[in-house]
Chromate transporter
Amino acid sequence: MTPRPSFREIFLVFLRLGLTSFGGPAAHLGYFHDEFVYRRRWLTDAAYGEVVALCQLLPGPASSQVGLAIGFLRGHYRGALAAWLGFTLPSAILLMLFALGLGLWPGVAEGGWVTGLKLFVVAVVAQAVWQMGRTLCPDARRRGLAILVAAFLVVSGSAVMQILALAVAGMAGLVLGIPRDQASGELTLPVQGRRPMVFAVLFAALLLLSFWPLATGTLPWLAAEMYRSGALVFGGGHVVLPWLQEGFVASGYLSADTFLAGYGAAQAVPGPLFTFSAFLGASGNGMAGAVIALVAVFLPGSLLVFAGLPLWHWVRNHDRARSALAGVNAGVVGLLLATLYDPVWTSAVKGSGGFALVILLWGALAVLRVPVWVLAPLSAGAGALLF
């Protein structure tokens, strides 16, 4: 095992990743594996696999949680903070500046380039559904469960119904006995005392508090919406879209055009997609809103990592618990499929020209493997020329 790195070393390693990790959560996990297993040998292959498995089972941004866990394993709580700051700040700052720019020149958000970005989002979410479906729904039972969840949420897609659908999917996984591969038992965790329980209680208390009615648009409301989204999202990344759309577009806080323009911009920057929260927070609440939204959306996932690491020893050897979580993951695919229709498709595709561009963009992503950070500005340019 290599010597324990300093706060500065962990921060700089993750800062470089935060500046260069394009491609979304799946790509981030590949970058982490190359950096921390092969290059630096901070973890073995088996230990890294267990970290990824744990974070996939928890609500929140999976790739950011993996980075947080690696920072914790190498530098305890200071290391976790260094990892989160380094990986998150680059994209968060860029998206905050983008939101502030739209606030200064609101007419810019009405151009054809926004239409291009919205159509790009359709292709990105479609590709995410395809990839996640192949990974999380490898058999007929899980594919059927995902389709049922999608059909239900297309008709009744409120936040409460989304929570209910995922809970029912978890129970279905338990009843059906959906199999899960067993973890290796390689990971050794530096967790002692009662701190994990404190983190779990804090997570639950803040989640209950986030449901308290608050005036739309205020900073406490912003914090509550972000915390609730970060706490209830399984799969991270694109899956947060329906939760945030429910809170920020359906409530009238943002227009659908601005919301999807920001989400499209989030595809063009490196780092975690959850930094889209900085765009939403800065839209109407400036820099203070960006900071509050960013911290609030990442906080529940971070608390769950610290609380869940000891629990992993039990979950990885408990077949019924893993079957229930497999059902939840299948439900997540259905949730994202429903989101692909509404609001993504319904607000972006208005005619045959838009549909044709979506097909071309999806083909570039799925077949040609063109990076999203290349396609995002190209989509904006095509929109400006065509719409």
